[in-house]
TrEMBL record:
<keyword id="KW-0012">Acyltransferase</keyword>
<keyword id="KW-0808">Transferase</keyword>
<dbReference type="InterPro" id="IPR016035">
    <property type="entry name" value="Acyl_Trfase/lysoPLipase"/>
</dbReference>
<dbReference type="InterPro" id="IPR050858">
    <property type="entry name" value="Mal-CoA-ACP_Trans/PKS_FabD"/>
</dbReference>
<dbReference type="InterPro" id="IPR014043">
    <property type="entry name" value="Acyl_transferase_dom"/>
</dbReference>
<dbReference type="Pfam" id="PF00698">
    <property type="entry name" value="Acyl_transf_1"/>
</dbReference>
<dbReference type="GO" id="GO:0004314">
    <property type="term" value="F:[acyl-carrier-protein] S-malonyltransferase activity"/>
</dbReference>
<protein>
    <recommendedName>
        <fullName>[acyl-carrier-protein] S-malonyltransferase</fullName>
        <ecNumber>2.3.1.39</ecNumber>
    </recommendedName>
</protein>
<dbReference type="GO" id="GO:0006633">
    <property type="term" value="P:fatty acid biosynthetic process"/>
</dbReference>
<dbReference type="InterPro" id="IPR001227">
    <property type="entry name" value="Ac_transferase_dom_sf"/>
</dbReference>
<dbReference type="GO" id="GO:0005829">
    <property type="term" value="C:cytosol"/>
</dbReference>
<dbReference type="InterPro" id="IPR016036">
    <property type="entry name" value="Malonyl_transacylase_ACP-bd"/>
</dbReference>
<feature type="domain" description="Malonyl-CoA:ACP transacylase (MAT)">
    <location>
        <begin position="6"/>
        <end position="278"/>
    </location>
</feature>
Length: 284
């Protein structure tokens, strides 16, 4: 995930600095660790935030500016740092707390998630509620992620709603549900040591897709986000309402670019997924 980015001057030093803050060897994890190791959400989350923020530091000048910024789930921590709500150091440290505490919450009881593809969104959400599940991610582009008990997830995988396809996800547990309440408490305690600043550029929230102008409010939402659904559908709608026609997705990139391409076809006409440093040329 990070090997190619380490070729930039100062990149290794930056990662070592963040490693100290989060108590993980991000250089090793981002260059040598196997897929099984980095699949642990306690590692995945700070590694994702670090990868995003490292790549952001090397964006060409013409791609920086003060345009809108948004993140998906843990990506909101990177977005907040980019908008100036808190430092990159704080973002990586908070991501480490988030990941570790969510991993603990997942270990408490068997839970899981599954992607529900196709189907009318409100009908899918109502059906999930009937099954005792929550719509943890409403991603737009015909995708809703169900979250809840492992038993209920197994049931909808075996017996999908008519007109839909259901695919179980390889995740630690039921993210963005009440099962993550212990993680929310731990995040709130850690966030209490952060003094947020108001965003310096439009910063959208996964809660409702709206621009949040208060750093204190955005930090509060970040804490609550672990037990609340990700409304990426509304976030994309918010980007469109701001007149966004060009997007750049920071590493690990590809998934959100695909969602934007399908959901905002004809509105967003230039999309760049920064999978490697070579993609930076597309922003010049």
């Amino acid at each position: 995930m990070l090997t190619a980015w380490l070729e930039f001057d100062g990149a290794r030093d930056r990662l070592e600095q963040w490693s100290t803050r989060c108590g993980l060897d991000l250089v090793r994890l981002g260059t040598e660790a196997d897929a099984e190791e980095i699949q642990d959400t306690a590692i995945t989350q700070p590694l994702i935030v670090a990868a995003s923020l490292l790549a952001f530091e090397y964006l060409p000048a013409e791609a920086g500016g003060d345009g809108p910024v948004a993140g998906h789930s843990v990506g909101e921590l990177a977005a907040a740092a980019i908008a100036g709500v808190f430092s990159a150091d704080d973002a990586v440290a908070l991501a480490a707390v988030r990941g570790a505490e969510m991993a603990k919450a997942c270990a408490a009881e068997p839970t899981s998630m599954a992607a529900v593809l196709l189907g009318e969104p409100e009908r899918v959400v109502a059906w999930l509620h009937e099954q005792g599940l929550e719509a943890a991610n409403r991603n737009g582009a015909g995708q809703i992620v169900a979250s809840g008990s492992a038993e209920a997830i197994d049931r909808i995988v075996a017996e999908p709603l008519e007109g839909t396809k259901v695919r179980q996800l390889k995740v630690a547990g039921a993210f963005h549900t009440h099962y993550m309440a212990p993680a929310e408490e731990a995040m709130r305690a850690h966030a209490g040591g952060i003094t947020p600043a108001d965003p310096k550029r439009p910063l959208l929230s996964n809660a409702d897709g709206e621009v949040v102008s208060s750093g204190k409010e955005y930090l509060r939402r970040l804490v609550e986000q672990v037990i609340r659904p990700v409304r990426w559908d509304l976030t994309m709608r918010g980007l469109a309402s701001l007149g966004v026609t060009r997007t750049a997705e920071l590493p690990p990139a590809g998934t959100l670019t695909g969602l934007v391409k399908r959901e905002l076809k004809g509105t967003v006409t230039e999309l760049v997924a920064l999978k490697t440093p070579a993609n930076l040329e597309e922003l010049r």
